[in-house]
Amino acid sequence: MKQLTCPIASIENYNDDTRRIILDLPEPVEFKAGQYLQMVLPEKKYPFSIASCPHVQDQLELHVRPTAGSADSDRVEALLDSATELTIEVPLGDCFLTAAPKNTLILMAASTGITQMKSIIEFMAPEGFSQPVYLYWGVLSDKDLYMAELCAQWQQRHDNFHVVPVVSEPDTTPEWQGRTGLVGDAVLEDFDDLTNVTVFVSGGPAMVYATLDAFVERGMPEENMSSDIFSYAPRPK
Questions:
Q1: N or C: which end of the chain has fewer CB within 10 A?
Q2: What is the rounded (10 degree) CA torsion for 139, 142, 143, 146?
Q3: Under 8 Å CB-to-CB from 78, ≥6 apart: which residues?
Q4: pTM of the full structure
Q5: Domains and CATH numbers, the chain
Q6: Are 165 and 178 contacting, i.e. CB atoms less than 8 angstroms apart?
């Protein structure tokens, strides 16, 4: 792990509340698809998944979305409003992919957890997808699908890649015609048998552990699921 001070190359808005931050790296950084970094502030360190592909070593991409009522989020947003550089620690995390799995890969993301999956997908894409890859992206409303266009491009380019957006609060977006409900339930609706799949999950502890229990009941070996939550917020024994 390195601590680096990185100039901010650009900050762009994906939508009303999600920002895409590009950092210039003062030296090459090797990381694995799915790892994260910590933004270092004087009072605390804040984890963010790396959205960029490991093949790119001169820049890092982050997606930052504010959390209402969170003092930590307010501090990060205030910094991004004024800073010209960020201090980071990188790489971190043991939930990553180093080679394409030999079986079906299910990537399941809640909200900006899509960033971790973006890194994994772009790592695999140059070699193509020899086995099916399913990206399930769960959001509250369709306006939160800020990378919908990029997801559609992945699906158009690769026959074995499938994206399934899932809106959990369809009442907020009555025009939505796609899947609704909980993202984990959408996977269970599509897969009767999970005995031979590899699963990556990005979300909060309650969502991740509920998914783990439901997928194990459907036949998935517990070791076939990876999530940063397992080390970041381990389940009490």
A1: C
A2: 70
A3: none
A4: 0.95
A5: 2-92 (2.40.30.10), 104-232 (3.40.50.80)
A6: yes
